[in-house]
Each structure stands twice: as C-alpha cells, then as structure tokens.
Amino acid sequence: MTAKNGKRWNHNIHYHPRVLRAVPDDARRALDVGCGEGTLARELRQAVPHVTGIDLHAPSIVQAREHPDDVEYVLGDFLTHPFEPASFDVIASVATLHHMDAATGLARMRDLLRPGGVLAIVGLARSTMPDDLPRDLAGIVVGTFHRAMKGHWDHPSPTVWPPPVTYPQMRALAAEVLPGSRYRRHLLLRYSITWRKPQD
After folding, report:
1. Does some domain include residue 6?
2. In-domain check, residue 186
3. Are 181 and 174 in contact (CB under 8 A)?
4. Segments forming the whole domain that contains residue 102
5. 113 vs 78: CA distance, rounded Å
6. In terms of pTM, does the model score above 0.85?
7. In whole angstroms, what is the distance from residue 120 CA to residue 58 CA?
8. How far is the CA of 69 from the CAs of 73, 84, 113, in angstroms?
C-alpha cells in the first residue's frame, strides 16, 4: 500500500526521528547498517556529509542507487566488510539486528564507532506471552490508527519472523556489550538502543 500525502510510513520509519535526533552535531561520517533501499540513509545525509549504507539484499541496493544522492551504497555483509575500525561518527540500524547474531552485530557496531561517536538502533524482538500481550495489543491498536491516517509502505527487503531474541534478552545484551547504553521499549513493537562510545 502506498503512503498517503506522498510520505512513506511504516513501523520502522515511524522511529527514524529518534535515530536522527541522536546524530552528533559534529558527525562527518555515518553508517546505515541494513540500509535497504536507502530511506534512512538519505535522511542521515541531510545532517552528515558522508553516509554509507550497507545491505546484503541486492534488489534493495539497486533501488537505493537509483536515487539522485551521493550516499555510498554497498552490497555486502556488514559483519565482514572491510570497514576501518573506529571510522564512523554515527552508526544507525533500523530493523536489522534480528537478521544476525545480535551480540556479534552489537560488538561489530561498537568496534566501528569512533570514540565519542553515537550508536542508534531501532530493532524488533520477540514478545513473551502472556506478559507482553497487553502491550502488544495496545501497539496493534495504535499501529492500525497510524495506518488509517498515513497509509502503509511495504519495504522491499526480506523479513525475519519471529525475531530470535526476546525483549529482556535484548536489554541484557545491550547492557553487556554497550555498558551505559540506553535501552527503551516502544509501543509499536520496537525497541531502541542509544549509546555514546567513551572517549579513549
């Protein structure tokens, strides 16, 4: 379904502003992990001079490269691509971490971030029943309202369902791999992690 008023909306795009607010004012280089067809990467480019997006899904990268922007789109595996360590001022990832081993992905993001840089993640985790049922039902109601008002854009990237890691497990992983990070659970079936890498 096409979004209304010419603007795309879905549960992931809804939380893009949270990622963008985390971008440091002095950021020069940004990495979008799991960039898909580049929606977030292009938004990052409005604030950061040099943006790289990486994704394993070739059709999405083809679509991303069709846009008239100067974002560098890389077809490859974020976990093994030869990026320089500590080379990005901001690393963003939306709905990607559940496609890989979460601990490995978090550690890789941590290592690619320069001291003082910021990591901003929006992700999906697995609900546990019956504890999460009231929250999930509320999220479905609110999501239905947003769809009715804004339409819904279906991204071209592959999906993984259910996510392999639960919300409590994700919170614990973030605390272990990214000490001092801020974990928050959101209504529209998402969580976020923000973390500033300590200075050397």
Report:
1. no
2. yes
3. yes
4. 12-126+159-196
5. 13
6. yes
7. 24
8. 10, 23, 24
Sheet hosting strand 113-123, strand order edge to edge: 72-75, 50-55, 29-33, 88-94, 113-123, 190-196, 182-186
Contact 170, 23 (CB under 8 A): no
Contacts of residue 124, Cβ cutoff 8 Å, sequence gap at least 6: 95, 98, 163, 189, 190, 191
E strands, the chain, are 29-33, 50-55, 72-75, 88-94, 113-123, 182-186, 190-196
Token look-up 């801020």 returns 182
Preceding omega of 162 cis (within 30 degrees of 0): yes
CA distances from 49 to 15, 24, 115, 143, 167 (A): 22, 12, 19, 34, 34
Per residue of the chain (200 residues), give pLDDT as tens.
454 555 787 878 889 999 999 999 999 999 999 999 999 999 999 999 999 999 999 999 999 999 989 999 999 999 999 999 999 999 999 999 999 999 999 999 999 999 999 999 999 999 888 888 777 777 677 667 666 677 765 666 677 778 889 999 999 999 999 999 999 999 888 999 999 999 87
Backbone φ and ψ of 29, nearest 5°: -130, 130
User: What's the chain's length in residues?
Assistant: 200
CA distance 167 to 182: 14
What CATH number corresponds to the domain at position 93? 3.40.50.150
Distance in angstroms (rounded) separating the CA atoms of residues 32 and 36: 9
**Based on the structure, what is the number of domains in the chain?**
1
The answer to whether residue 83 is domain-embedded is yes
